[in-house]
Amino acid sequence: MSQPSGNPYPHQPQQPYGEQPVPQQPGGYPPPAGQPYDAPLPPKKSKAGKIVLISLAVVLVLCLGGAAITWFTVKDEVGDVVDAANTRVVAPATLAGRKQVTDPELTKLSDQMVTEMKSTVQNETGTVGAFYGDVAKQDLVMVVAASGVLADPKKEMDDAIAGLKTDLAVQEMTTTEPGPLGGEARCGDGKTEGMPLGVCVWADRGSVGLIVVFFKSAKEAKAEFVTMRGQIEQRS
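Structure tokens predicted for Flagellar basal body-associated protein FliL:
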């Protein structure tokens, strides 16, 4: 008895004899033009990876000057010593309206920054390493700071700026308003792998710190600097 011709499974498309099925990408679509069949899609370069490298560079900049955080000599003014001794840096829950980042990779990096500073900076009374904002929205701020009685805040500032010029390609750091906590503050434009960075650094008798605003300019970072510093540096 002859068998009926045609595809016995009418719901499946019949493949002409001798032809191989066209490979499909996930979702049932052919691969993009120029990309070989069955080749995986090229991975996107992670912004987090860039941020890790930048963060390590910033911590290194701060820690290289750590040996200078030492007690005042007897000739220093008592009032300055008291203010400096009562200064602490903290990681607030929010920074200039941004929530602290809970991303596991950046949280781990924050912990590593604090550990590195505590093991390197002498006589510190407090350390901060934290991220705020949202990487996906290109609104991210990194804070690295240490408190302690600084014998020479100007040297701390100069050392930090020298390191920033090398590691974050910061060309010029201009003086900016330090705010009510006093000391010195400067901000400048940096860049790494095409990512713009607004970088601000401060130093006073009781603390030294760096604020890096990713994806932004120095002008934008400077506009928020006094607010952010006031939330990080506390004086009792």
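The first strand starts at residue 87 and ends at 89.
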